[in-house]
Structure formats: C-alpha cells, structure tokens
Amino acid sequence: MSLPPSRMKDKLIEQLEKAYQRLIQALDRIPDNQKIYDNWTKKELIAHIIGWYEEGVVGTPKILKGEKPDSFRITINNYNKRSVEKRRKMTLSKVKKEMADLHKKWLEQIKSLDEDQIIGFYGTLLGKKPINVEWMINEGISHDNAHSEELEKMDKN
Asked: How many domains is the chain partitioned into structurally?
C-alpha cells in the first residue's frame, strides 16, 4: 500500500532529517584526528558529505528541468575527490557549518516542492534509469545512514 503523496513528502523529509541527525551524532563520537573511511580524516569525510548535500541543492532544480546533476557527468570517485579538495584548506568548524547550512538549504528546497515535483519524471536519466527528486532524496538518506553505520561500528571498537 503506497502512501498518499502529501504523506509521502512528509515521510521523505522526516527520514532525511533523521538520517542527518544520526550522522551528526555518529560524527560527534569520533575524535577529530582519527582516520576513518577511505583513510580520510573527520574533516575530509564531512567535506565528502557536503559534496552530496551540495549536489542535492544544485541537482534538484536540474532534475526538475530534465538536466543531469554534476555527479552524473563524472565518476563518483572523481566527484568525491573534487568535494574533498574543494574544502582542503577549510577548518573543521567551517566544514561542519557548511554541512549544516547545505543540509538545511536542501531540506527547505524540498519542503517548497509539491508532491508532483518530487515524484514526477522530467527526463533525467542515469544511464537508462529514470531519475526524479524522490530518487535523489532517497540517495541522500541512504548515503547518510551508510556513513552513520560505519562510524557507529568504529565507535564500538
């Protein structure tokens, strides 16, 4: 049984916020200088995550126009590397602030959309797969939860 569209939008927003809060809590338990995912520091991991929030903010309007987000044009590894390099000279506190600001901006952007914009298909393809805003949001939820899970495992060791 599928949810009514307005409830679906609320549920996606709730899941995105819950995944973000879980990620923040997991990050807060890891020491700042500890090497983590892919031998990154905490700052580099956050810079990587910021890249995907940035992609949400910039990519959502592109999807609504039937255009491809930037991450669809290069390999994921190159996209991640670019996100980290872009923030290499920033302090940890600045990357944390940018992450919070971009997450908030993406949430506000999603809240401003109607249900048809979230579930509608406007012509964006990833390979042959049709992509919409709902897909982008679900990818964000999955990404935050995957990193949270990794960090939570590290915290238990």
From this structure: 1
